[in-house]
Amino acid sequence: MRRNLIAASILTVILISSIFGLLIRINKRAMAQSISDAPPALINTCLITNDVNRLTDFYAKVLKIRPERTGKDYVEFHTGVGVLAIFSAEAQEKYIPGSARADENHSAILQFKVGDVDQEYARLHDIVQTWVKGPTNQPWGTRSIYFRDPDGNLVDFFTMLNSA
Fold first, then answer.
1. 29, 40, 66, 83: which sits with the fewest CB atoms below 10 Å from its CB?
2. What is the model's pTM?
3. Distance between CA 68 and CA 80 in Å, rounded?
4. pLDDT tens, 82-107?
5. Domain 105-164 in the same topology as domain 41-104
């Protein structure tokens, strides 16, 4: 009787282990499937520059975020939603020749949601050298300021307007 009880216990453990192993394999396949079907997530925007220190100093003041440096060629600003990275043009050319040219962006806008556009405009007045547009209510429901960073990249600080 005792042997039967031990044998039954061993069989139960083997059965449970087999079922558990099967569930793990099924779950791994399901997770791999869901990850491969997921749309890409934009988490990092990288600016290529001829002067990493100048651009880092500018964005440290503008974003009020302490930069995280990896050597002399790469800096990150973790915004809580994504990362703004700054990378040297010299290093970019070394790693991926001919892929990017610094100081030539005229087609992308870095957009940052802020608490109060008018306060930011006043705060940034002595930091920003090139203003494109002062505080303005936009037809798409934001109040924005537009300015250029030292490399000429267009930056938009915006606040959502009340729809009332």
1. 40
2. 0.74
3. 14
4. 999 999 999 999 999 999 999 888 88
5. yes
> Would the pLDDT of 81 be above 80?
yes
What DSSP string runs through the chain? Answer: -HHHHHHHHHHHHHHHHHHHHHHHHHHHHHHHHHHHHSPP---EEEEEES-HHHHHHHHHHHHT---EEETTTEEEEE-SSSEEEEEEHHHHHHHSTTS--TT---S-EEEEE-S-HHHHHHHHTTT-SEEEEEEEE-TTSEEEEEEE-TT--EEEEEEEPP--
Q: Would you list the domain boundaries of the chain?
A: 1-38, 41-104, 105-164
pLDDT band at 13 (very low <50, low <70, confident <90, very high): very low
pLDDT digits (tens, 9 = 90+) for 106-121: 889 999 999 999 999 9
- For the chain, what is the mean pLDDT? 86
Q: Measure the CA–CA gap between 52 and 60, rounded to whole angstroms.
A: 12
User: Measured between alpha carbons, how far apart are the two ends of the chain, in Å?
Assistant: 79
CATH number corresponding to 105-164: 3.10.180.10
